[in-house]
From TrEMBL:
InterPro entries: Flp_Fap. It comes from Stappia indica. This is Flp pilus assembly protein, pilin Flp. The lineage of its organism: Bacteria, Pseudomonadati, Pseudomonadota, Alphaproteobacteria, Hyphomicrobiales. Keywords: Membrane, Transmembrane, Transmembrane helix. The chain crosses the membrane at residues 31-52.
Length: 71
């Protein structure tokens, strides 16, 4: 039973070391920030396209869909 607690403690120590490394690693933080920005921009583009879908009508999206299906 004592061995299981040692394994659990070792896992906790490994996690703490990993968390400390990630906290000090600014390249990883920058990558995460860029990923979040890309996600927000993607949502904005999708929202804009969905909001103008009714204005453009189905003809424009039909042409685009058929163009992609021919590729």
């Amino acid at each position: 039973m004592h061995g299981q607690f040692d394994k659990l403690r070792d896992r906790g120590d490994q996690f703490a070391d990993l968390a400390g490394t990630m906290r000090r690693d600014e390249a990883g933080a920058t990558a995460i920030e860029y990923g979040l920005i890309m996600g927000l921009v993607s949502f904005a583009i999708i929202g804009a396209l969905l909001s103008i879908q009714g204005v453009l009508g189905d003809d424009v999206f039909g042409v685009v869909a058929s163009a992609f299906s021919n590729i």
